[in-house]
Design goal:
The protein has seven helices and ten strands. The chain has 234 residues and is an alpha/beta fold. It has a single domain, classed as P-loop containing nucleotide triphosphate hydrolases (Rossmann fold, 3-Layer(aba) Sandwich), CATH 3.40.50. It is globular, with a radius of gyration of 17 Å. 34% of the residues lie in helices and 29% in strands. Helix 5 runs parallel beside helix 6. The chain has a six-stranded mixed beta sheet, sandwiched between helices. A four-stranded antiparallel beta sheet has the order 2-1-4-5, covered by helices on one side. Bound molecules: adenosine-5'-diphosphate (ADP) and magnesium ion. Magnesium ion binds next to helix 1.
Length: 234
């Protein structure tokens, strides 16, 4: 569990360029930040400002062209590919804008699947399935299928799935964009509860000012750079 002023991630001078047609896009252009542990960090900024590219690098789905990235003392960019994949499977969870549950699996089976991928044993998993669905307020929906649930409920199952293997950090890329504001606020309230009860660190991108008010730490991006950083948590 993290102490009050711990830093979950140290990010130094990250760069990521894409070549599209004849032109070069600097999607992430020299980002240096520290993400506090056990807090909700929101990354905001207009479309194309580099939020998703940054999140994918932090979440080890993509590699930067230059820069340094450490989870606490662990320099994740110097790891071998298999070590980094293992680190990602165990320490990181993802929630996306488009809710990607498996339609043919119940809520419980969707959550269980994530833990199987992370290599957890069956006995350990069944207790954790109930615990995670209870954390998102869906303990009575264990055997329901995605089609039987609202968008907000499905996103809550996706959150239960993302936390099931007890990751250190959850990345949520516009998780409320397809929900109405009230449902979106409920989703963010669930993240805050997970932070309180499980000590998780959450990094979320959003356009919605209502969500930003709930953040401990707000980073604004523009043109691949951090243009503002308001941290209430340190
Ligand atoms: N795979 C890619 N190939 C080429 N350009 C990309 C790729 N991914 C992102 N970009 C470009 O990088 C910039 C930042 O994109 P992105 O990180 O998706 O921004 P945001 O999530 O803030 O909308 C944009 O100009 C986008 O077009
Ligand atoms: Mg994006």
């Amino acid at each position: 569990m993290s102490g009050r002023n711990d830093i979950a991630l140290h990010v130094r001078d990250l760069h990521r360029r894409f070549r599209a047609g004849g032109t070069e896009v600097r999607a992430v252009d020299g980002v240096s930040i520290e993400i506090p542990a056990g807090r909700l960090t929101v990354v905001k900024g207009r479309s194309g400002s580099g939020k998703t590219t940054l999140l994918n690098i932090l979440g080890l789905l993509d590699r930067p062209d230059a820069g340094a990235l450490a989870y606490g003392p662990v320099d994740v960019l110097r790891m071998s590919d298999p070590d980094r994949d293992r680190f990602r499977r165990h320490e990181i969870g993802f929630v996306y804008q488009t809710i990607a549950l498996v339609a043919a699996m119940s809520a419980a089976e969707n959550v269980d699947f994530q833990m199987r991928v992370a290599g957890m044993k069956a006995g350990e998993r069944s207790r954790r399935v109930s615990e995670c669905l209870a954390l998102v307020g869906l303990e009575k929906r264990m055997s329901h299928f995605p089609a039987e649930m609202s968008g907000g409920e499905q996103q809550r199952v996706a959150i239960a799935r993302a936390i099931a293997h007890s990751p250190r950090v959850i990345y949520a890329d516009e998780p409320t964009a397809e929900l109405d504001t009230m449902t979106g606020v409920h989703i963010v309230a669930i993240f805050k509860r997970l932070i309180e009860e499980e000590g998780i660190t959450v990094v979320m991108t959003t356009h919605d000012p209502a969500m930003m008010e709930l953040a401990d730490n707000v980073i604004e991006m523009d043109g691949g750079r951090v243009v503002e950083h308001v941290d209430d948590s340190l």
